[in-house]
Amino acid sequence: MAPPTPRRLDDARWRAAGGRMETLIDGIGASGAAARERAENLVREVTDLYGAALERMTDLAVAAKPELAQAFADDDLVASLLLVHGLHPHGVERRVADALAGVRPYLGSHGGDVSLLGVTDGVVRLQLLGSCKSCPSSSVTLELAVQDAVRAAAPDIEAIEVVAAEPDPESTTIPASSLMSRVRAAGGPARWIPVPQLAELADGEVGGFRVEDTSALACRVGGAVFAYRDRCPACAGSLAGARLAGPVLHCPRCAAGFDVVHAGCGVGGDGHLQPIPLLERDGVLCLAVSAPAEVA
Known about the structure:
The protein has helices at 6-15, 17-29, 33-64, 68-74, 76-84, 92-108, 139-153; strands spanning 112-120, 123-132, 159-164, 174-175, 193-194, 206-211, 214-221, 224-229, 243-245, 248-250, 257-259, 265-267, 278-281, 284-287. By secondary structure, the chain is an alpha+beta fold.
C-alpha cells in the first residue's frame, strides 16, 4: 500500500476540525454562559456566511458544468461541507447505498454482507446477509465499520435499524446476525485513530504497537492488514514474538494458532483473538479501540 499523500493527510486534518472547534468553544465557555453563547453565535454567523457563498458557487459551477456535481460528491472534504449546509447533490438513500458499497468488501472478509432495505423518516433499515467465519468477538468490528460508514455519509439520519436474515439450519458456521444483532443508533461515529505506520508492514510481517492504552499487534497477509489485541486467549500471555505461518498466527508461548484472516478464529479449539476495528479512511489506516467483547 502506498503511503498517504499530503492531500489525504490534509483531508484527515480537516475531518477533525469540528472537534477542534468544539474544544475551543468549551474553553471559551469556561468564562461563563454568556461567553459561550457569544462564541456559538459567532460560529453560527461565520457558518451561515460561508454556506451562502458556497451555495452560490456550487450553483454557478454545476450550471456551467453539470458533471461537477458528482465530482463534488466524490471529494470527502467538499462533500462534508455540502452536507453541513444541506447542499449535497445526492439524497440520503443514495449516500447510504454508496457508503455500504464502500464497506462491503470489509464485511465480506468476515463472511458477512449487508443490504439496504430503505430509508424512511430518517431511519435507515438494513438486513444482514451471509454467514461469518469468525466469532462473536468480531461483532464490534463489523458494528463500528457499518455505523461509521453510514453516519459519515449521512449524518442527517435519525437512527439505524438492522433486520437479521433467517439463519440456515444446515449451516455449521456462525450466522452474521450473531456478529451484529443491531447497529447502535445512539451516539456519533466511532473515534478512529490514524496509524499510518501500519502501511509499512511487509507481507507476512507481524508488528506490536500501542494505540491509546491498548497493546496490540498487526500483521499483513496477502496485501491486507489485520489488527488484534495483544493477548493469547489460550494461555492469557502476550503475543509478542508471534510469527505467521500463512494466515495462522502462533503464540510464542503455548503454540496455539489463530486464523488472522478470519477474525482470529482459533485453530483446533484455541479460542479467538480479539479483533481491533481497522479501516482505511482518507487513505490512512485507522483503528477504533473499544472495550473487549465478552466471548462465551
